[in-house]
C-alpha cells in the first residue's frame, strides 16, 4: 500500500480559493442539481440555498415533473427543470438525454440526494455516472447506483479502475456506503466506526482504486481522500447538517473545476465557520441558521486570506 500523505486543516490552507467575485454572477460556476422525489422535496431546497449562499452564479434544478407545483415558490422559477418520471414519482431513464444536454453547459453535475432507490432511477444515475463527461458529485441514493454498477462490472470481469478517466467524480460517503463500495472492489478490509486508522486506510485505498475523490464525515473530523492524499479538518460536525455542507462543496467545485481537493477543503472550512458562528448566536442552531451564516463564514475566510 502507498504511504498516506496526511494534511491537517486547522485554518485556511488555500487562499487562492477565496476569490473576488465577478460582477456578472452568470460568469461564476454553473451547477446542475439532479435531486428530489415524492416525499423528499425539501432535500434539494437545502442544497440549492446553500450553493447560492456560497457563491454559485447559475444553478439548474432537475426534478420529477409531478413536483413542479410543489416547488413553485420554494425555488426560483428560472432554475426549474421538470423531468420525466416513473410511476412512483422518481426520475426515469427518459430524463437522461435532457440531463446530458444541460450538463454540457455545466461546470458540475450534482446527483443523488433524495432521488429514491427506484430501480429505474438507479439505472438513470449509473448512466449519468458512466456516460456523461461533466464533472460529477454523487451522494445519497446515488451512491447505491455507483455500488450496484461496480458490482455488475466486477461480476462481468470488466475493469472499473478506468471508469472515470474522462471526468472528475466526487463522492460523499457514510460508513455503510464506504463498506459497501470497498466490498464492491473486492477489498476484505474490516472497518468499524471507532477504528479511525482503518477508515482512513479504506478511504485512501478506495479513492486510488476508483480514481475518485471522497468526502467522509467521521468522528470529530471531516476527511477528504484524493490526489494520493488524505486531508483532515478537525471538529465535531453534526451529520444532520450534511445537506448544507454538500451544497457548499458543490458550489465551490462548480467555481473551481480544476482544483478539486483544494476546493472541497476550503468549502469544508467555510461550512465549519458558518456552523460555529450560527451556534455562537443560538446553541440550538438549525440548518437555516447555518445557511444564513455562510456569508459571515466567507468574511472570516477572507480575513484569514489577507494574513496569508
From TrEMBL:
Alphabetized InterPro entries for the sequence: CARKD, Ribokinase-like
GO molecular function ontology, one term from the record: hydro-lyase activity
Gene3D superfamilies per record: 3.40.1190.20
Gene Ontology terms: biological process: metabolite repair
Limits of the YjeF C-terminal domain: 33-295
Keywords associated with the record: ATP-binding, Lyase, NAD, NADP, Nucleotide-binding
Keyword Nucleotide-binding: yes
Protein name: YjeF-related protein
Amino acid at each position: 500500500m502507498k504511504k498516506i500523505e496526511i494534511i491537517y486543516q486547522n485554518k485556511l490552507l488555500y487562499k487562492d480559493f477565496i476569490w473576488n467575485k465577478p460582477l456578472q454572477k452568470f460568469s461564476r460556476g454553473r451547477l446542475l442539481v439532479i435531486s428530489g422525489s415524492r416525499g423528499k422535496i425539501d432535500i434539494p431546497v437545502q442544497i440549492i440555498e446553500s450553493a447560492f449562499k456560497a457563491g454559485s452564479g447559475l444553478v439548474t434544478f432537475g426534478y420529477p415533473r409531478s413536483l413542479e407545483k410543489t416547488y413553485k415558490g420554494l425555488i426560483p422559477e428560472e432554475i426549474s427543470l421538470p423531468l420525466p418520471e416513473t410511476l412512483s414519482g422518481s426520475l426515469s431513464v427518459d430524463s437522461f438525454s435532457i440531463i446530458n444536454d444541460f450538463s454540457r453547459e455545466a461546470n458540475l453535475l450534482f446527483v443523488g440526494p433524495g432521488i429514491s432507490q427506484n430501480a429505474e432511477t438507479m439505472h438513470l444515475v449509473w448512466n449519468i455516472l458512466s456516460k456523461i463527461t461533466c464533472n460529477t458529485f454523487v451522494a445519497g441514493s446515488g451512491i447505491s447506483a455507483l455500488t450496484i454498477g461496480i458490482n455488475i462490472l466486477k461480476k462481468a470481469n470488466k475493469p472499473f479502475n478506468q471508469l472515470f478517466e474522462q471526468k472528475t467524480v466526487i463522492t460523499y460517503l457514510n460508513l455503510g456506503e464506504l463498506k459497501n463500495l470497498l466490498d464492491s472492489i473486492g477489498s476484505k478490509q474490516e472497518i468499524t466506526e471507532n477504528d479511525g486508522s482503518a477508515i482512513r486506510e479504506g478511504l485512501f485505498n478506495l479513492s486510488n482504486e476508483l480514481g475518485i475523490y471522497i468526502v467522509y464525515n467521521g468522528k470529530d473530523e471531516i476527511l477528504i481522500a484524493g490526489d494520493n492524499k488524505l486531508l483532515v479538518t478537525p471538529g465535531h460536525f453534526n451529520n444532520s447538517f450534511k445537506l448544507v455542507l454538500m451544497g457548499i462543496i458543490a458550489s465551490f467545485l462548480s467555481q473551481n473545476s480544476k482544483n478539486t481537493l483544494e476546493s472541497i477543503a476550503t468549502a469544508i472550512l467555510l461550512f465549519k465557520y458558518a456552523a460555529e458562528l450560527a451556534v455562537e448566536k443560538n446553541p440550538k442552531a438549525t440548518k437555516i441558521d447555518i445557511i444564513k451564516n455562510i456569508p459571515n463564514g466567507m468574511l472570516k475566510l477572507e480575513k484569514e486570506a489577507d494574513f496569508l
